[in-house]
Amino acid sequence: MATVMNGSTPRRSASSETLSYLWERLPDEHDSLRAYVDRAKSYRKDCGCAMGAIFVIATLAILVFYGFVFHGFSIQHWLTDALWAAGSLLGSAMLGKLAGIGLARIRLVLLVREVRNRYPVG
């Protein structure tokens, strides 16, 4: 097994094991397998930042809508309003990040299922 710069071994998963097995066993299919390998790498490396940003933008829009349309923000309670807004934004960022990571993992599982259906692994 290959080692990384810091001396530890890379983490292996079912998707990488399946794709490595197919890569070794089917040299004629390297062109079609390369697309699967690239997709699997992108899903594996996805950090959820894009989904977190979408959640933050949606929460910010809701906060602005609430503040201006419903006159929800007041000068008397600016500190509590600011803390409430900051907490909402932080919570939505974390929730969006977790949702993005979860969605990438689901896509990875579906990709492995697709590969196994197309190329039966013993």
Structure commentary:
The protein is mostly helical and 122 residues long. The protein has one domain (30-118). The protein is built from four helices and no strands. It has helices at residues 14-25, 30-45, 49-69, 78-118. Helix 1 runs parallel beside helix 4. It starts with 13 loop residues before the first helix and ends with a helix.
Topology, element by element:
Blueprint: H1 14-25, H2 30-45, H3 49-69, H4 78-118
Helix pairs in contact: 1-2, 1-4, 2-4, 3-4
Shape: rod-shaped
Count all strands and give the number.
0
SSE-based structural type: mainly alpha
**Residue windows where pLDDT falls under 50 for at least 5 positions:** 1-6
Q: How far is the N terminus from the C terminus? A: 22 Å
Provide key terms for this protein.
122 residues, mainly alpha, 4 helices, rod-shaped, disordered N terminus
Q: Nutshell version of this structure?
A:
By secondary structure, the protein is mostly helical. The protein is 74% helix and 0% strand. The chain has helices at residues 14-25, 30-45, 49-69, 78-118.
